[in-house]
TrEMBL record:
Main location: other
Pfam families associated with the record: MORN
Compartments where found: Cell projection, Cilium, Flagellum; Cytoplasm, Cytoskeleton, Cilium axoneme
Domain of life: Eukaryota
Keywords: Cell projection, Cilium, Cytoplasm, Cytoskeleton, Flagellum, Repeat
Family annotation (SUPFAM superfamilies): Histone H3 K4-specific methyltransferase SET7/9 N-terminal domain
GO cellular component term, pick one: axoneme
UniProt cross-references to InterPro entries, sorted A to Z: MORN
Source organism per UniProt: Haptolina brevifila
Record protein name field: MORN repeat-containing protein 5
Length: 122
């Protein structure tokens, strides 16, 4: 993780950019080490939130989903025919796990501010 921008008394303060370890990036205003005010948060999957942040959380703004990429992979050249069903099922399960709507649901609910005791209640 890396931050470039303004500092006051060892805290992020003013305008700056924060680069997260997972590839996400925030560019915008900071107050007392928290995202506060106008900013842009680009997620690792390509989706982008642009708008207002309040106490390190998304407040009012617009979320633009990443464009879906579709491709076709011919596995017959690298996987023997007798293993195609097993490999295909494993690949399908891995893709579903990775590209699930749970990720978007988590981002939506994570933006809600709640007490630590309520964090696991919906």
């Amino acid at each position: 993780e890396r931050y470039t921008g303004e500092w006051i008394d060892g805290r992020r303060e003013g305008h700056g950019s924060f680069f997260f370890a997972n590839g996400s990036r925030y560019v915008g205003d900071w107050v007392c080490n928290q995202k506060q005010g106008d900013g842009l948060l680009a997620f690792e999957d390509g989706s982008v939130y642009q708008g207002t942040f309040d106490k390190d959380r998304m407040a009012e703004g617009k979320m633009r989903a990443s464009q879906e990429l579709y491709s076709y992979i011919d596995l017959t050249k690298i996987v023997p025919a007798e293993q195609m069903t097993v490999v295909g099922a494993a690949l399908r399960a891995a893709l579903i796990r990775h590209n699930t709507s749970i990720k978007q649901s988590y981002r939506y609910f994570a933006a809600w501010e709640c007490e630590a005791t309520d964090a696991f209640e919906l």
